[in-house]
């Protein structure tokens, strides 16, 4: 099957799920790309946008608000070990190369530019890289491995996340139909970390300020605020929650047990865990 035929097959499946009744993970062909840094720019005080481009980003696929790619880093000895193409998948070397995962904030097919918004924190491998990287430098990007495709016909959407989930939250709000209704909660340190959001008029956005003395993931601000939501009787709700694994754990139980949502009607993902450098949580949906 040609690459175009492959693309047609999964884009048709994405359209089918989008028009259906329940969310579903749809895989797309996973590529390893050699990209170049075009520019970096601050997005509020908490995020640094790394824009990638060059021939390697041509034909990139972006279909889901919280799909992610891996940025690959050299080993301690300076050797960069890359996965190899294997049909629609990648064959990864063992042990796995050092990598960090980032949400695809935006891909522009016309310019070929790919934006990754990196949450800044002291001593983080990805943070240090984003701060130091300069235009013209080469970056190797693997993925996305697919994405969770959510129908656009729910009555309401409930979106919630911390600073690490803010890029995905922003993309969620941009890509929802302009007629969508619901709630979006974003936990940040203070007003300096707030960013512009393009939310539908019917989605109420609430910024939650942790306060500079409280590190991310250390307070129950997000979970407490979200649990105040009252969903009108008889309405179908889709909920998406991402952030520090411990802080969002109570919301998984609340969505399942209190709201009684079916498995396919919510996605709760730990993007990171306090004290764990390269945490990897499977999506729960």
How would you describe what is shown here?
The protein folds into two domains: 123 residues, Translation factors (Elongation Factor Tu (Ef-tu), domain 3); 121 residues, Nucleotide-binding domain of ferredoxin-NADP reductase (FNR) module (Rossmann fold, 3-Layer(aba) Sandwich). It is globular. The strands form four sheets. The protein has a six-stranded antiparallel β-barrel. A five-stranded parallel β-sheet has the order 13-12-11-14-15, sandwiched between helices. The model has no long low-confidence stretch (mean pLDDT 92). It has five helices and 15 strands. It is of the alpha/beta class. Helices cover 19% and strands 34% of the residues. Helix 3 links the parallel strand 11 and strand 12. One of its GO terms (molecular function) is oxidoreductase activity. InterPro entries: FAD-bd_FR_type, FNR_nucleotide-bd, Riboflavin_synthase-like_b-brl, SIP_FAD-bd, SIP_fam, SIP_rossman_dom. This is NADPH-dependent ferric siderophore reductase. It comes from Amycolatopsis echigonensis.
